[in-house]
Design goal:
The complex is a heterodimer.
Chain A lengths: L10 E6 L7 H12 L3 E4 L6 H11 L3 E6 L4 H5 L2 H7 L6 E6 L8 H10 L4 E3 L5 H18 L6
Parallel strand pairs in A: 1-2, 1-3, 3-4, 4-5
Helix pairs in contact in A: 1-6
Chain B lengths: L4 E7 L3 E8 L4 E9 L6 H16 L5 E8 L6 E5 L6 H11 L3 E6 L5 H10 L3 E4 L9 H11 L7 E3 L3 H13 L4 E3 L13 H18 L11 E5 H14 L10 E6 L4 E6 L9 E4 L6 E6 L8 H8 L1 H8 L3 H13 L8 H22 L2 E7 L2 E7 L8 E5 L1 H4 L4 H6 L17 E5 L4 H7 L4 H11 E3 H5 L13
Parallel strand pairs in B: 1-4, 4-10, 5-6, 5-7, 7-8, 8-9, 11-17, 13-16, 17-18
Antiparallel strand pairs in B: 1-2, 2-3, 11-12, 12-14, 15-16, 18-19
Amino acid sequence: MTDTHEMPKYTLVTGVIGSDTHIVGNRILSMALEDAGYHIVALGALTPSEDFVKAALETAADAIMVSSLYGQGELDCKGFRDMCVEAGLQDILLYVGGNLVVGKQDWDSVETRFLDMGFDRAFPPGTRTNEVVEILARDFKERAGDADTGKQ
Amino acid sequence: MSARAALLIDFGSTYTKLRAVDLEGRKLLGTGQGPSTVTSDITIGMQAALGDLEERLGQLPDFRYRLASSSAAGGLKMVTVGLVKELTAEAARFAALGAGARLVDTFAYELSRRDVASIIGHEPDIILLAGGTDGGNSEVILHNAEKLSASDITCPIIVAGNRSAADEVEDILRAAGKDVRLTDNVMPSLGTLDIEPARAAIRTVFIERIIHAKGLDQAHDFFDALLMPTPAAVLEAAKLLSDGPHGHGGLGPLLVVDIGGATTDVYSVADGEPTEGRILQHGLPEPFAKRTVEGDLGMRHNAGEIIEAAGKDTVAVLADAQVPEMAALLKQISADVERLPKSKKERAFDAALAQSAVRIAVKRHAGTVEIVHTVNGPVAAQRGKDLSPVATVIGTGGALVYGRKPSSILSGCLYSEDEPNSLRPRDPALLVDANYMLYAAGLLAEAEPDAAFDFARLSLEPVSAMSEKEGENELRLTSG
């Protein structure tokens, strides 16, 4: 952030991607993240992938948290990282979580697919919010330590 | 006569128009019209209009207020700059249009050298610089401030972007000697519009500078104040009619359509929220008082574009003319944009153009609803404003007041089974601003809200009453 006089407060964009109306889990996650001190830009249900990117650009978000619960996440998330790169957000942290695919598939292979798509982390169904909060804090810390170039 | 009269002046692009009203008796005392002479000496047109008024009244009363609006000399030309096209750039656009500006160009993302050259080429009166939510992206607005500061731009720049970057943006521009005005962010947080402060800042610049820049101060002996651009006065009148004076007794949600020679403007005063519970609202919320301008829908300057947008056959059916015949009519008005219709054919053609312009302009202004198929079944998603419950539609402009078939023309705004996704009014009362009083009421709204409301209200005539006069009057275009 350009603000030097105050502690950087991370901004997160949250929402449910595609034609998915399952908002409850995403809202609970958003509330938990807000309680953890993050600034939340909640886009809600039925959010097209480009709206995540536009919102992140305008708000200078540090991470995008994509939820998908209706089994079509893989299709909806295709090219998500590429879109971020296109918008100049190549370094933004990307999380995805929920019922990402249809049927009972091996989680490891699902996770691999999403990581290959450019997500930094993928979370299976049933993940607790505090788990996400902890991992996110760790990721931000790591990034801050990684390089002081980071974000401008 | 007592000093309870008011003179309301509209310096238009074609005419200088006057309305003299009796504030106590709530009467329109008379009207006057002269040519628009802003390019030579504005006082000539003003003198002519006053002469016209005096002739009708016998003697000019003492005026307690002499207030003016202007759309002359190209209107209030503005350029807006934002970050994401659908977000802060759109919010900046809403602010400029709501302030009555003629938006000559809009930019999003980082300005290039070419963009800056194009801005200079437009010779804007004001640039509105937005970008980033508060605490959000500041790189882009800083970049754009640098670009503007390094340019030869001399017009005022209103900064209405990311609060966290505002000081720096101001410093950059001021250091380069630019006229900078700082105001609140048009989008303080994502999806929240706050355009009133920017609108107020635009109006301040208009009052301070535009009067001089457009040569309107030559006429300063004739008026006390030039308050706002004419479209802003119409929006003020629309708000007053909707809310009522002091917020009581208004007409409720309403729509105003102004069919002009060069553009068709649409104003809505309505929250436009979904009318049914199960509908999800999508996209940026829109201003409660919203103005859109369709630069490709003008009765004279863009008649060909109206036909193109509406479809040749559709317009031909409405005009009761054959397509080749219509082409000849079009050629005629394109060759002479000040032409008034003379024959029955020409009047029918004008009415068809106006009806088509109304339909397309209101369709673009109104929101849409789409059915999205989800695993839980179909869900309706709304974008923009749902105007279907709007109970009052007011038409203004020469084509309606002096032309044929005002009821058919204005019915173009209605919801149609053919376009079920377009959330246009379903069953409104269709009214015409018969005495062209909206701008006048808008000018008076602040000083005399009760009288202003009555004047606007009294000028409204149902189209059914107007229809009796069909064909009697010559069509006159009141705005250009």
